[in-house]
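Obj.: predict assembly geometry.
Materials: sequence records (below).
Method: joint structure prediction, all chains together.
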Amino acid sequence: MKHTISVLVENHAGVLARVAGLFARRGFNIDSLAVGVTDDVNVSRITIVADGSDYTLEQIEKQLNKLIDVIKVKTLAPENMVSRELILIKVSCTAKQRSEIISICDLAHGKISDISANSITIEISDSAQNLNNFEELLRPYGIKEIVRTGTIAIQKGEQAVSVRN
Amino acid sequence: MERMTVAKAMTKCLEAEGIKDIFGYPGAAICPFYDELYKSDINHILVRHEVNGGHAASGYARVTGKPAVCVATSGPGALNLITAIATAYMDSVPMVIITGQVNSDQIGRDVFQEADITGSAEPFVKHSYLLKRPEDTAEVFKRAFYIAGTGRRGPVLIDVPCDIQKAEIDFEYPETVDIRSYRPSSKGNGYQIKRAVTAMMNAEKPLIIAGGGLFTGNGAELMRTLAEKLDIPVISTLMGLGAMPTDSPLYYGMLGMHGCVSAKCAVNNCDTLILLGARLSDRTSAPIARKENLTVVHIDIDPAEIGKTVETSVPIVGDISVVLGQLLEQVETIESEKLPHHDAWKKQLDESRYDAPIKPVEKGFVNPKWFIRELNKYLPTRSIVVADVGENQFWTASNIELKNGRLLTSGGMGTMGYSLPAAMGAKQAEPNAEVIAVCGDGSFQMEMPELATCVQHNIAVKVIVMRNKYLGMVREYQTNHYGNRLYAVSLDGSPSYTKIADAYGIENMLVDSEESAIEGIKRLTASDKPFLLEVAVPELLETIL
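Observations (raw structure tokens):
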């Protein structure tokens, strides 16, 4: 089962290594990982999508909490979060195919970020599942390159995962 | 505020933390600090290998209950400490480790004696710091001692580049410390405390498993009171040995792969288990994990241990002495005639007590079980015995009598060569206690150089070498599981250990009969200097005698 975990950490050198090391040595599987600053310059957020049973998730949470630099750990409920990844996808594209690809792109609320004689680069931010579907739609044209970020996620409604609460 | 170098500030930090002795090994990258140690009142003990400095600090910390300090230089010096750090981490021993590092502008360039020690030690430390800003010195040291000595205890590493040690700062040691991401809970949840008391009161066959946390958390006495009040039998893990006096009628021995029959019987037949500061490794949890319809009350300071190996019915996270205090407070409110008595349960367990007779051994040898039992007769009650790793460890653990004394051993990591350096640390921490290292000839050859440290610093540790010319536990494993194809387990070529002791100027004796063994034990316990006893043990004995 996939779990999306939002981790607030002290913004120190080496914190990411500690978190990644913990996952590696305890045999927890990371599907994706994204790191960024928060509204507090001293705090970073690591969003981890991990695969494992409920037992594994409980251990992940507890072991993360033992790291001194970890301030808060919160597993987000799938039905109660908005999750996004950003994808940049470069597809082979002749002049003839352009309008076809652009309409697919519009359908998926994507944006054309670059265009050349024989290629087109599209950027979309969406849930991982929708991005996978979009990728399949473009595959017949010939995918040259895909660049994807890890998942970031936020709770729905007014609740927040923050150092202030 | 006082202007001084970081190196001097480091000694001031240690003094502020009440550190009197440190164990270490110098080198170029830590020299600024050593130059300040030279001027300070802190007593430095020069070990003969960095790993032993780590083990010595571990023995010291386990006796005092407070973080102890070891120090090494950059690169190989720091790397040599890793086994000791991991050993301390596995057994939750509070330690602060100081390492020198190459100059900060050289880090990452593969310069002479450079190693990424914070990176290499990361899996084995509770936390670590690379001190990059001189002005952080006081805060880093304050935090390191606080983290090491609170919550689930553990080693904390501080890596200090050589140029940072020489930098000047305005120094003042902070009085308080607050780390927003580290606030270990001390009190147990009130609701769970009530549930725990109910579970213990309703149990027909309750059983306490006493773990090492009772020593680190100072809860042994309270556990005894609780067990006696509620008439609950107690067994122990290897790390918890001695938390219940071994001669108590409520005590039914040690659990584990090499544990005793009555402890196994207790686990197999109990209906309610109370785990006190025991994490239950794979060596102890197997018979418990198999049980059905078992109520488990698990009390531990580390929430991650609860539910890790055994399903828990009543989880309590907190400081063991505080939680036991809370439990006792609840128990006090119960009228005395309503307190349970478990006579039938105890009778069942008493019937399972089994002490195999001591087998005679051939002439020229001593039975180690007999030997440890004989040693018991001469040890003062507050003695500290440090068992090494291997057959000697369980010959000792299974037969040593502990009333108010301690048994120290490397339980989690099983690190050979632990006993002599850890005993040195223990003796340094408690000079009036009788401190005895029991090791095999395999482990002794890993720690032998520390005899010099004992002589140089007048540390009157007594060493008992159970010499059987084999790596006995591996030999036994090969016998039982690999068709008796004994390979790479013979210690042929080993020296005479009494001659080794002679070479160091250490009093010694070789014993190879019961008569000589008794004389040896008498001489060993009577001496106020380091002493080595070489005990001739038959070559092919089992771990469980």
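Conclusions so far: The CA atoms of residues 3 and 57 of chain A lie 8 Å apart.
To do: check interface contacts against the pulldown list.
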